[in-house]
Design a protein that fits this description.
extended, 3 helices
Length: 77
């Protein structure tokens, strides 16, 4: 994702701006590259943004996060 620099904005506004960029790009690809997507067998759709707090993200990850952290710890040692 490109680095966004904007005055007087918060993290949510920046994430929404980035989401808008992704939606624009995907929409243009869907409009202009139908034949190429068909050749590649790619089914593309405009994504819907989901915003989580840090705590919500940790809850959703649950045990998967512990496994990831353990694997990374083993790699470091």
């Amino acid at each position: 994702m490109p680095d966004v620099e904007a005055a007087f904005t918060n993290q949510m506004q920046i994430m929404q701006e980035q989401e808008g960029c992704i939606k624009f790009i995907v929409t243009k690809i869907l409009e202009n590259c139908k034949k190429e997507l068909e050749i590649l067998g790619v089914k593309l759709k405009v994504p819907k943004g989901i915003y989580l707090t840090y705590e919500e993200g940790i809850k959703k990850l649950g045990e998967k996060l512990e496994k990831i952290l353990l694997q990374n710890k083993k790699k470091i040692m």
